[in-house]
């Protein structure tokens, strides 16, 4: 099949997040399909920005559209979104003529790309897929405090209902969305759950060595006799990293060092907080390349992931970094209240209530008191869980099976 994958924030190992579109597309290419990835040349989640042009990465045809840079989640980001969608809309006939898609996927996190994807699918006579990362407008309303009557929230709501009505297939990373989507007009026969996962290739090859400053920080912690609690991922409000710092502040005298790698909107404030409070047991060392994540996780003892206490998580969670943690065999300290809990399902760590430093400290103490054999068994269970259900070869095939069931393929129409 020819697949046109519309993802504003698409990334790659060389560019940084988002990784999911790259890994799915790479599996489809390996299976003999042709994939064209359409993205913006600026995204706040990437570590490096591409040039507005075309390029081929591991058999995937990337087409980057020029968009204005921005910071934060204000008007600049809205202008960036609008610029991207306008250009793809204008170029739709040319994109269809050049790539002749059998499947068009709208997957830009925000739902407004459904209108552009619908235009592309109609021009091509292709199957239209809506891929749900987060539930917009609920995510900005419940996570960021946006008013439900804000013009942007109303626009997102209109787009969401359009997507559920018009898409031939809806793919959701979140596992508990059925009632919500049905309430907004989705025929649940269209819905397939395809969570995030890992690429086995990333774990079979020799991992890239850690940056010297990261390796040195971990080595110094070990020399001091400390257990190393690691965090690898975004530094934004949804990650609730203030709770981790609160816990670290209350454990200044404990033989534990927290090592954080990553970047994001909250990075500057959190780093300043570490300095202001003189948290000598916390080390922020900037982002590291995707290829170094296995080395980082192999070097630490325990891995941390936390969430805000917000109603949106009743629909479930599907965090990329948690899959990496489990694949690395790291026992996990998980601060969450959600519709699902992969850590509890896998039996690979300790889950505690979110936004509670006391709970994090209690959970950490539980893991510290576990024997080396008990922690090793946790890690092994986590790895087995990922290999059974969350590898991209398995997930990519599940995604395409849903498309085939809707009639996708050469010479067919939805």
UniProtKB/TrEMBL annotation:
SUPFAM superfamilies: UDP-Glycosyltransferase/glycogen phosphorylase. Residues 16-197 form the Glycosyltransferase subfamily 4-like N-terminal domain. Transmembrane segments: none annotated. InterPro entries: Glyco_trans_1, Glyco_trans_4-like_N. Residues 227-384 form the Glycosyl transferase family domain. It comes from the Bacteria. This is Glycosyltransferase family 4 protein.
């Amino acid at each position: 099949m020819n697949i046109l994958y519309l993802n504003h924030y698409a990334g790659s190992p060389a560019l940084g997040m988002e990784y999911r579109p790259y890994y799915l597309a790479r599996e489809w290419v390996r299976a003999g399909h042709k994939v064209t990835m359409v993205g913006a040349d600026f995204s706040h989640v990437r570590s490096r920005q591409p040039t507005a042009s075309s390029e081929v990465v591991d058999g995937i045809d990337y087409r980057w559209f020029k968009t204005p840079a921005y910071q934060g989640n204000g008007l600049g980001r809205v202008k960036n979104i609008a610029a991207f969608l306008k250009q793809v809309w204008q170029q739709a006939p040319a994109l269809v003529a050049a790539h002749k898609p059998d499947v068009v996927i709208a997957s830009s996190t925000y739902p407004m790309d459904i209108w552009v994807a619908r235009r592309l699918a109609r021009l091509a006579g292709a199957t239209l897929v809506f891929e749900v990362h987060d539930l917009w407008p609920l995510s900005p309303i419940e996570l960021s405090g946006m008013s439900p009557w804000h013009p942007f929230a109303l626009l997102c709501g209109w787009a969401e209902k359009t997507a559920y009505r018009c898409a031939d297939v809806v793919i959701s990373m979140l596992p508990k969305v059925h009632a919500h989507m049905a309430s907004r007009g989705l025929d649940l026969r269209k819905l397939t759950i395809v969570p995030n996962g890992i690429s086995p290739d990333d774990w079979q090859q020799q991992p890239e060595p850690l940056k010297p400053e990261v390796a040195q920080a971990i080595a110094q912690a070990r020399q001091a006799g400390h257990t190393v609690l690691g965090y690898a991922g975004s530094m934004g409000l949804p990650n609730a990293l203030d709770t981790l710092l609160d816990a670290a502040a209350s454990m200044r005298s404990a033989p534990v060092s927290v090592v954080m790698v990553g970047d994001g909107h909250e990075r500057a404030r959190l780093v300043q907080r570490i300095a202001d409070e003189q948290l000598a047991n916390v080390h922020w060392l900037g982002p590291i390349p995707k290829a170094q994540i296995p080395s980082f996780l192999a070097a630490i003892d325990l891995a941390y992931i936390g969430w805000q206490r917000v109603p949106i998580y009743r629909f479930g969670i599907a965090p990329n970094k948690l899959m990496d943690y489990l694949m690395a065999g790291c026992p996990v300290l998980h601060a969450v209240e959600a519709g699902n809990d992969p850590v509890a399902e896998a039996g690979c760590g300790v889950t505690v209530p979110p936004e509670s430093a006391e709970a994090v400290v209690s959970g950490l103490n539980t893991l510290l008191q576990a024997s080396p054999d008990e922690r090793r068994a946790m890690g092994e269970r986590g790895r087995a869980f990922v290999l059974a259900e969350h590898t991209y070869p398995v997930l990519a095939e599940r995604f395409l099976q849903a498309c085939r069931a809707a009639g996708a393929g050469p010479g067919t129409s939805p």
